[in-house]
Structure formats: C-alpha cells, structure tokens
Amino acid sequence: xxxxxxxxxxxxxxxxxxxxxxxxxxxxxxxxxxxxxxFGGKSRIIDFPLSNAVNSGIRRIGVATQYKAHSLxxxxxxxxxxxxxxxxxxxxxxxxxxxxxxxxxxxxxxDAVAQNRHVIEGYAPKYIVIxxxxxxxxxxxxxxxxxxxxxxxEVTVGCIEVPRTEASGFGVMKVDTSDKILExxxxxxDPPAMPGNPDMALASMGIxxxxxxxLFELLDEAAAKEGYDHDFGxxxxxxxxxxxxxxxHPFSRSxxxxxxxxxxxxxxxxxxxxxxxxxxxxxxxxxELDLYDNEWPIWTNSELTAPAxxxxxxxxxxxxxxxxxxxxxxIISGSSLERCLLFTGVRTHSxxxxxxxxxxxxxxxxxxxxxxxxxxxxxxxxxxxxIVGEDAEADAARFRRSPGGICLITQPMIDRLDS
Length: 419
Known about the structure:
Layout: H1 3-10, E1 12-17, E2 38-39, E3 43-44, H2 47-55, E4 60-65, H3 70-79, E5 90-95, H4 109-115, H5 117-123, E6 127-132, E7 136-137, H6 141-151, E8 155-163, E9 171-175, E10 181-186, E11 200-211, H7 212-223, H8 232-243, E12 246-250, E13 266-267, H9 272-281, E14 309-311, E15 313-314, E16 317-318, E17 320-322, E18 325-326, E19 331-333, E20 336-338, E21 341-342, E22 347-348, E23 353-359, E24 364-365, E25 370-376, E26 381-382, E27 387-388, H10 392-398, E28 400-401, E29 407-409, H11 411-417
Parallel strand pairs: 1-4, 1-6, 4-5, 8-12, 14-19, 17-20, 18-21, 19-22, 20-23, 21-23, 22-24, 23-25, 24-26, 25-27, 25-29
Antiparallel strand pairs: 2-3, 6-11, 7-13, 8-11, 9-10, 9-11, 15-16, 28-29
Protein name: Glucose-1-phosphate adenylyltransferase
Pfam family, one: Hexapep_GlmU
Catalytic activity: alpha-D-glucose 1-phosphate + ATP + H(+) = ADP-alpha-D-glucose + diphosphate
C-alpha cells in the first residue's frame, strides 16, 4: 500500500450491507442472515469484507443489518470490538429502526445508506465504500478508492471478470478502454465482452466508491423521481451510467493474493452447492483461497477452545483425518475423515465415517454414522448408524438434497425421523 492510497483509506468509511437473507441457502438461513453464515472452519462470511476494510487501512465502518440479525450482531460484538474511538476508529452496527415517518425496514440498498445519513455525516468521511456483506474474497479497497479519485468519476463500480458464458446471472458492465461504463445490463442473454477480451465480461460485485457529499446529493435527487426503488443497482448506478460519470474497477487490479493463489478469488456462496464446494475446496493440497496468508489476515471471533484431538488407534476404530481441516475443540474419536471441514467443537464418535462433509460448530456425529457429501448445521445430533449420501431417493425423502447431490441436515430434519 503506497502513501497516497493509505491517506485516501484514512479519509474513507466502509458501509457494509449485511441485511440479506440468502433464501437459496434454505434452512441454513432460517435462523441467521447470509452474512452470518459460517465459512472456512472458524470464520463468518461477513469477516471477509470487514477484514478487507481493516487491512486496507479503513477504520470507520458501518454495518447495516436487517433479516434475523441476532447471530450476526452477536458475532460483531464478540469478534469486532477492538476499534478504539481515541484512534479515530469505529464500528457501528446499524439495524433497521423506526424513523420519524414510522417506517422501519430498509427498502433497498440505497435506502439503508440514506436512513443512516446522520451516522455517516457524523464521522465526515470524504469517501465512502459501499460493500456487500455476503461474498468471499480478499481485496485492497484503498487501490479502488485511488482509482476513483484519479478518474474523477461520480461512482466507481467494483467488477469481477467472469466468462461471458457464465455472466448472464449478473449485472454486467459494458465499458470502453478507459474503464468508463457505457451500459449497465441486468442479467443479459448476450453479455457484453471486455475490451480486448471477447471471452470475458465484467460483472458487478456490489461494491461502489463515492465521494460522500456527492452520494447524498445523488440519493436526494433519485428520491425525488417517480418509480424510485431505493436501490444502487436499480437506480443510482444506471442514472450515473447514463450521464457518463461511472467507471468500472476490475477486481484483478486490487485483489490480494499470496504466492499460492494463482487466480483472483471471489465467490458468492449463495446456494447449498456453492457453499459446500467453497468450503470443501479449502481442503485441497493448494486451495484457490489461501487462509494461511498472514500478510492479509481474516479477522474473526476466535473462541477459546482446546486443541483438536484424535483418539483410538485400532483397526476400524482409528481417529484419523486425510485432506481435511479440523478446528479447535474438535474430538475425532475412533472415526475417519476424508476431505472434510469441521468447525469449532465438533465431536465424531467411534466407527463413524465422513467423506466430503462440512460440519458446523458443536454438531455431534454418533457411532457408526456414514456421511458422504453432506452439510451438517450447527449443533445437530447425527444419530448412531445414520447413512446419508449413498441413496439419493432416501436422502431426498428425509433431508434437503441439492441439485448437485449435496444433502443439508438440520436438527428439525433429524427430529422428524423419530416422529
């Protein structure tokens, strides 16, 4: 980080939009918002944009919460309470609350910012970075802010480079060779290509940089128009694209990679299949996302736990794990793990076998259970002898089975087995 980008980061505030449910995760978000979802053994998804902000030198952060926010707020209070006002640092948790007009829910992404205008203006940041709270990636936002200031644009839109064949599910930017956004198209059938790269397209990451004063002027202007949907992607960005005052910032220019990461890494783990895959990928010999990079740490709430323990050493009853990640507080008792990711405090009992399993905190796998390609929710008690992942029809009748063949197991599903 050079001196100029560091100075700009110090003049900036990050505003994280963390109110989304993530309905495509089904029962996993019945009790928690998508940004509060567990990821990577000990983290939550929200930790990634927050860590990016802190590592980028931004120490003023607001987090707008809405849907089932209790576990998210508790996580922020426990894991992100190290900010000190005397060092000009702050982290404000901003739940949707009743306003003077008796309306309380955030109507959209832009409205979440507008309703917290007094909080933002109280800190008087020169620049504001609007962030989505539900993606997995490492990015130096200070470089994006510097790009914004140098360009003179009214908004800079963070964009991920994706193959054109996969871009139809995104909001896609058509840009010229100077990064100016010529057109913003939502989920196009024929996505516009990047200049000089006909096979790739630029998709919005839901990250925007504005000069703060100008942003509020734009929000006031948009609010006076008919049909205003209170949304950045639906209202503010198209308005600025039409004026020719929006530029794109390709993620590859500011993504953070260790020496082990070959390609820029960004994931939306918004489905059960994507969530399982991104977690299991971390068990690879050389994963695409390096969580061991001390130069760009992912901050989180680190629970005080005993080390993981592996016990019993008999044929057929050996505590073992191959190509797996096992978190603190876990006890692998006479069971075998292959390509699994276990979160804090998981217990597996004798003769159980797990393959391709993501187990969230404090779940327990009892004797002789056999699980293949499964996601186990927090605190679930897997009964002795349960077999999942070997009979698709039986799995679908008892549990949530994804299009990719991944089974999601929650405690209510287990309870129904006995009824």
